[in-house]
Amino acid sequence: MTIDYQLIIEELKPIKIIQEAEKIKQLSLDYYYFSPILEKQLGEKKADLVVIPNTEEDVLKVAQICVKYKIPLTVRGAGTGNYGQCIPLNGGIVLDMSEMKKIKWIKSGVACVEAGIKISVLEKETKKHGWELRMIPSTYKIATLGGFFGGGSGGIGSINYGQLKDRGNLYRVKVITLEDEPKIIELKGDETRQINHAYGTNGIITELEIPLAPSYNWLDVIVTFPDFIKALKFGQELADSDGIVKKLVSIQAKSIVKYFSSLKPYFEKEQDCALLSVDENSLFSLQELVKQYDGEIIYQQNLSNINHVNLIEFTWNHTTFHARNIDPTITYLQTFFFTIEKVEQMYKYFGDEVMMHIEFLRVAGKAIPAGLQLVKFSTEERLNEIIKYHEDNGAFIANPHTYILEDGGRKSIEPEQLNFKKKVDPYGLMNQGKMRSWK
Amino acid sequence: MTIDYQLIIEELKPIKIIQEAEKIKQLSLDYYYFSPILEKQLGEKKADLVVIPNTEEDVLKVAQICVKYKIPLTVRGAGTGNYGQCIPLNGGIVLDMSEMKKIKWIKSGVACVEAGIKISVLEKETKKHGWELRMIPSTYKIATLGGFFGGGSGGIGSINYGQLKDRGNLYRVKVITLEDEPKIIELKGDETRQINHAYGTNGIITELEIPLAPSYNWLDVIVTFPDFIKALKFGQELADSDGIVKKLVSIQAKSIVKYFSSLKPYFEKEQDCALLSVDENSLFSLQELVKQYDGEIIYQQNLSNINHVNLIEFTWNHTTFHARNIDPTITYLQTFFFTIEKVEQMYKYFGDEVMMHIEFLRVAGKAIPAGLQLVKFSTEERLNEIIKYHEDNGAFIANPHTYILEDGGRKSIEPEQLNFKKKVDPYGLMNQGKMRSWK
């Protein structure tokens, strides 16, 4: 059945619609091209229409029309993902949520907002109340909250609060279904796992109620070390230092420093280093820990100084972003190492072919090293060899070179999430082709 | 050389002095009698004078006089310790710090106070600024801050911030020495380890600068479980739940519940249970976790309700306090189990002879179970057998049945602390007999 988009456009009125080909192309893509594999697979994909709702009623109407005409629907935030999370494989409608950006309320420790709000905009408001987000992606300036929960997993702050999927990190969501009669439903607590990191394959998230974290006066700090292993061990001890308040522990091998153009003035030479965010009151303790590992603080800046570089934007997958700006053949891995010994083993085995970039985060109460290593891409075969070597040696790879949910970090879709999809998207219209188990 | 205390009293004037025998006896003791061993050893010990300074100058003067006449000096807070920390073994002066209680300043995340301030009084003030103490003892209503750092190790809040000795949990102290010319010195950061948990054997702490924790609306919660192992596993998972904000995870075997007189109305029957303090916003997540372990919430109360029982005062060593109120033959152990498997092993081996009471706390970034088990005392030999069995099976006992620093939790005195004592107390006047390495 061919879909008559002129008819659809009429029916959608007065909801905002994008029809210009160039704009549609742009709003159909994300940062998928960090992966040369995805670049080949997804570069040409695009929606037939982009629809930009303003209200829950708008979203409901779009849902009704998609069900009526069986139109593929792909939900999009700011498109800062890296796995083609919001790239429509089969055309149809891309639902751009960026105008659904109202803050419903903020109270002590909790915020309720529409899904399309930019994380930075929300955090600016919560900070007025003494609170901030528990975790943010390195793309927080433009990324939306709904997109973060739908397509992300953790970020700056995960060293304290774990990952988005962890119990207690999402209180409630409103979701609009694509049933014969689309409905607004609410999920609370553990129920929200049904929509977590599902790339919007199972309902349209319109509203989120999230816990907040107490706000601190964060200091950005760069520390250099005589060698990578010292930097790594320092990172683990800082992550484990219960008395030192921090929210970012990012360790970067010296081979990566050359890609940090705007940080160069602070480096005398390329050195293994840590990029950190710590409470200003913890600075003295940090200095003592730095000394213990023969480190040197080469940069420290209060975040309230708006002229400074923003260290957050050199960590997590922004590291890859900067490297690719200099050398577009660079891609990356995502790895749970679990122990620093495993990091050391891989670091020594691969040398500069896999440039070590570690982010510490909490998993079930323990601070562990996770890698977003940079890889100089040669062939797909070699990339797969590298991945296989990691897996054969006990490191868990969340493969960022696939748009299939089950082939990435998830490995399998929980039955509860699949059952939920059957209920809320019986025609399988949402983000088609991303969830293999659906077929 | 006999000390002429009439002369001392004259010289001390106008500093407040206690001379009444009954009052001196009272101010020479602490809660040492939780241990039948210490009870026998320490019950008759007392000072010759109790001196109550009001200012740093007063303390300096006392120090000068003690050095001049070589008078043994024992510093005391509220005397809520359990190892005879502030009991003078050789008479002399007890320095009661409870009138040195000024708050110097409170700023965002940091407080500076005199050592004798009651922890509850300080926390009442910090809460006005949105902050609270990182950790408090169960005796916080009367215990002093200086006493906590001098003789304690951790408490409610240690599940987040570790122990008092951990880097970052004490910013700065002022200490008055007992050199030939007593001086006021300052220790910062790691240097403060020189006075940590030293029972006041190495200088008189007069002022502390401490980090604070963000204040939450805490809920007191009691959860019952079908059996102890479920309660224990629940405790570990709650302790490891990075998304749930808590500050107390106390697990009590059902054999202990009979000692909780004022909690009885809430228990239908004696059951293995958890006594918790969680952020009110985390309640829903807690309920989900409780369900997972077949638990039942039998009590929940906001701390701002002043009529409710205070759960904190049933945990840590207050558990022992309540048990001894019912059965004075009960004493206790202090144990680092490191894993819940080790707890289970001991629980099954000893049965009701060692009633299991677990507090979860963070040690180097990991939440571990620590025991304050209740023991029905028979003989010293049997108590030592019980201790030996624990140690032989990989549990670390911080023996609370000794007043010697090295025989308790410390095992040995770090050279830096011993060297510090040589400098600040060259005549060995401070809390004589508590540090074996001194001899």
Task: Provide keyphrases for this structure.
alpha+beta; 6-stranded antiparallel β-sheet; 439 residues; Vanillyl-alcohol Oxidase, Chain A, domain 3; globular; homodimer; Uridine Diphospho-n-acetylenolpyruvylglucosamine Reductase, domain 3; 8-stranded antiparallel β-sheet; 23% strand; Uridine Diphospho-n-acetylenolpyruvylglucosamine Reductase, domain 2
Ordered list of secondary-structure elements with their pairings:
Two copies of one chain form a homodimer.
Chain A: H1 5-12, E1 16-18, H2 21-26, H3 36-42, E2 49-52, H4 56-69, E3 73-76, E4 93-96, E5 103-107, E6 110-114, H5 119-128, E7 131-133, H6 145-151, H7 158-161, E8 172-176, E9 184-188, E10 204-214, E11 218-224, H8 228-240, E12 246-252, H9 254-257, E13 273-279, H10 283-292, E14 296-302, H11 317-326, E15 330-332, E16 335-336, H12 340-350, E17 354-355, E18 357-363, E19 366-371, E20 374-376, H13 380-392, E21 396-397, H14 415-424
Parallel strand pairs in A: 2-4, 3-4
Antiparallel strand pairs in A: 1-2, 5-6, 6-10, 7-10, 8-9, 8-10, 11-13, 11-14, 12-13, 12-18, 15-20, 16-19, 16-21, 17-20, 18-19
